[in-house]
Amino acid sequence: MLLDVENIRTSYGISEVLFGLSFKVQQGEVVGLLGRNGVGKSTTMRSIVGLTPPHQGAIRWKGADMRGLSTFQIARNGIGFVPEDRRVFPELTVWENLDIARRAGTGGADWTEERVFALFPDLERIQLRKGGYLSGGQQQMLTIARALMGNPELLLLDEPSEGLAPLVVDDLRDQIATLRQQGLSVVLAEQNLEFVLSLSDRVYILEKGEIQFEGLPDDVRGNTELIERYLTV
Question: Where would a tag sit more exposed on the chain, N or C end, judged by fewer CB atoms within 10 A?
């Protein structure tokens, strides 16, 4: 077991968002978190990396409870986070955005600029361009690449396909599939159903801050009742 999220409850002030949410991630597994906007997917990610710590429950990394750890300590333990709003450094070049995140791996990973550029060839071509002048797709690639430069064992991707053109989404799917083939564990929070089903080993569906369904991608495909109840906008 790589990550074990057990019965967490997370709030923003007096507004509770997660109500006893639990899920697990095995080594080398891609786990999809599906659900409409506002059901708690992003809060789940923020809870894991300590940006919005849960006030109840446990988050265990390789069996060790991460309660009380700061976000930078969680990152150093081997968890990379790609937020929904990307947050590239606009005044730094692509290369500088990557260099600032450089960290030695803890689990045998060895992500370098060369390896990142092999995965995202477009970034090599624009490596001297400032982050603020990139397209949405380029920013998304850069944010993922920057997270990889920290040599994570688990990568959390929050709505990576949101706002991207279909061709860019297809490229992104291929790049995440490559990471999966290379053995990187991934938690993928998305509304794009087919995007998640095509990449995930297992999926969870969230509704109102709780897990309503756990199963295989094939359990969701063609299940019209399930899709209409929890996923249709």
Answer: C
pLDDT at 106: 56
Tokens of 161: 């396909």
202 with 215: CB under 8 angstroms? yes
Alpha carbons 228 and 121: distance in angstroms, whole number: 38
Whole-angstrom distance, CA of residue 3 vs CA of residue 185:
10
SS3 at position 142: helix
Q: At what angle do helices 166-181 and 136-148 cross, to 10 degrees?
A: 10
Q: Measure the CA angle with vertex 38, ends 192 and 165; round to 5°.
A: 30
Q: What is the pLDDT of residues 73-131, one digit of tens each?
A: 999 999 999 999 888 999 999 999 999 998 866 555 689 999 999 999 999 999 999 99
Cα–Cα separations (whole angstroms), residue 51 to 11, 38, 46, 167, 204: 12, 17, 5, 32, 22
Main-chain phi, psi angles of 3, to 5 degrees: -130, 135
**Can you tell me which residue has the tokens 């279909």?**
166
pTM over 0.85: yes
Domain limits, the chain: 3-230
Strand partners, 18: 10
Q: State how far Cα 54 lies from the chain centre.
A: 18
Q: What is the CATH number of domain 3-230?
A: 3.40.50.300
